[in-house]
Amino acid sequence: MKVPKIWKVCVIGDVDVGKTSLVKRFVFNTFSEEKEETVESKAFKKKVGDVLFMVWDVSVYEQHIDKVLNGAKAVIILGDITRGETLDTMQEIARFLNGHRALKVFVGNKTDRKYEAQFWKEELGDLASRYDAPYFFASAKTGENVNDIFNYIAANA
After folding, report:
1. C-beta separation of 135 from 107 below 8 A
2. Taking the chain (157 residues) in consecutive chunks of 10 residues, what is each chunk's mean pLDDT?
3. 95 Cβ partners below 8 Å, 6+ apart?
4. 106 to each of 32, 43, 121, 128, 132, how far by Cα in Å?
5. Predicted TM-score (pTM) above 0.90
6. Rounded CA gap, 140 and 99, in Å?
7. Which stretches does DSSP call E strand in the chain?
């Protein structure tokens, strides 16, 4: 019997960018319109191939954020494309993570509302290239590209 690899992946971003929704779409393939504020970081698990993902929904209020991020194989830095200021927060998070060895993956969430986008490929691509990192656009609501993000991590982390 082959023992699965256990990989910690953290999802971090500004308030209301869809961290919990993205995690729940990936783990349970569900979406709820009700907003859930993440007050305390929580972990969920899902097996993909021979990788058991321990996916952490990281609270921006986490007092000991370094401890939560410690040991992460990858960090998904999430922004809301309908709120331009979340791109600035993504950059701040990337700067904060600049000593961590984890693979950084930038994700612009809420593509189901792309007609309201305040940033798009050029801006997110520029940010990701500064950190030599990949970027994706996704929708936790529709599921667009959510699995692709984790498949990328499984293949490249």
Report:
1. yes
2. 83 95 97 80 91 91 83 97 97 91 97 96 97 97 98 92
3. none
4. 23, 20, 11, 6, 11
5. yes
6. 29
7. 5-13, 42-48, 51-57, 74-80, 103-109, 135-138
